[in-house]
Every structure is written in structure tokens, then in C-alpha cells.
Amino acid sequence: MTRSIQDSKILITGASSGIGRALAKLCLSEGASVAVVARSEQKLDSLAKEHPQADLLPLVADVTSEADRRRMLDTVTKRFGRLDVLVNNAGVASFGHFSTSSEEVLRQVMETNFFAVAELMRLAVPVLTQGVEPAIVNVASMCGRRGVPAWPEYSTSKFALCGLTEALRAEYARFDIDVLLIVPGLTQTDLRANLLHNTGRMKIDLKEGMTAEQVASAILRSLKTRRRETVVGWEARWILRVNRWLPWLVDRLMIRKVRKLYQQESKESQRAVAEPKAHTHR
Q1: In a domain, 3, yes or no
Q2: What phi-psi label fits residue 33: left (phi over 0), alpha (psi between -120 and 50 degrees) or beta?
Q3: Is 157 inside a domain boundary?
Q4: pLDDT tens for residues 167-195?
Q5: Which of 40, 92, 129, 224 is 20 to 30 A from residue 200's alpha carbon, by CA?
Q6: Same domain for 46 and 108?
């Protein structure tokens, strides 16, 4: 049975820009009441000004804060009377090799992308059970189904989110809450502009990715049709399909790419090791 978005009460985290902002606009256009959560008050205010007639609730909050998570849910239920859909979209990333990163970066990525989402889903159960056709939508990544070099922390957090989503899909069925997973490929967002660590060498042109609006449309379709998992983008579908049947080939291609990026550095290291040896034989 298709879910109706009209009159739905929806909470979207990470909604100040990118996918979250685009999804909020789509939901509003279909007659939903939408609470948008982000840390930037200025960006939330600009979104509200774009939709002065809409039932839009801007909430400045940090999803990693337990107090903020409780306040978000309390404010939404007081304003809308209930919550029907929770969209976990907020996230951070780090771009660079694991050996040159830090424990602090790993913990921050996991805290935002996994622990905050997990605790918000736990906290939202009694609220969502009072909603109409309740659902949770978790926005993961292609990196959550296939680990990618230079994105180790991000891949780890999204793998964990995918696993928890699958586990809760069965658990939350007893509450009649749908738990849906979105797996987007390369997308034109400002994720790269807010990286915690940015030392990766691989050239990634976000302009070649999908628009945030395309991903938002896919999320809305999945919500309406109750699709359990949706891979968005031809690149993600192609890589994950190949990885499913030929994981060794994907490994080999990624290894080759990394070695090529560090080829010159390896040659210089080898020369540095060889020169002292040459000196001792004179």
C-alpha cells in the first residue's frame, strides 16, 4: 500500500543544505508538516523564508547531544501533535588514509553518523508509535555497502548504520514502524567542504555526481512505496553489483588506484633507503 505524504509530520536532520534541504522542500510541496534540524540557524532561517506559507519548524540542534535529541522530539510533538516520519540524514566525513588520521576523527565520525542516529531511533519509538503510518528513513552511502580507500571512517560509520537498520527493520516491525535504508552514490553536496580531515589524493569531482534533488526524489519515492533499501545512482548500482559477484576485482582495482597515487612517493622512499647502502660500499 502506498504511503501518503500529505499531512504527514516529518522530522529531517541535516536539513540546512544538500539532500536534507532538498527533501524538506519536496515534502513541503506535497503538503507535509516538516521539522528541519541543523546546527546553522542562518541556513534554517533562509529555508523558512523561502516557504513562508508552509508548516515548517526550524530547529537548531546538535544530533550528538542527548539533550538536543530529546528537545527535538518534544518540540515536534508539541508543535505538530505527533511524528510520523524520522529521516536521519545528518552526517560528517573525513577524507584521507587511516594511518595518517586520528582517533579523534574516527570517534567524531562515528558519534555523528552512527551513535547519534542509533540513540535518536531508540528515543523516537514511543513517539513514532503514536504516529500515522510511522517510518524511519536512514540515509547511508555506497560506502556503507563497499568500503572505499581514503574514506575509512566514513565507510565504517555507514556500514554500522546499514547493519543497525537491517536489525531494527525486524525489531521495529512489532511497533508497525517501517525502517528504510537509502544508499546514494556520488552526490553534489557540501560534504567535502566540511570534512574533518582532508588529505586524500584521489580526484573526486562532485560535479559529476547526482544533484541533491535527484537523491531527495528517490528518498520520497522509497518512503511512499515502503521500499526497504534503495540504491541511488548508476555509479553506486554498478559498483555494488560488481562487488556482489566479483569482490576480488573491486579490491584489485582499488589497490591499483592507491598504488598509482603513491607510486612516486614509493620510488623516492626506495631511493632514500638505497643511497646510504651505496655509500657504505665505497
Answers
A1: no
A2: beta
A3: yes
A4: 999 999 999 999 999 999 999 877 667 78
A5: 40
A6: yes
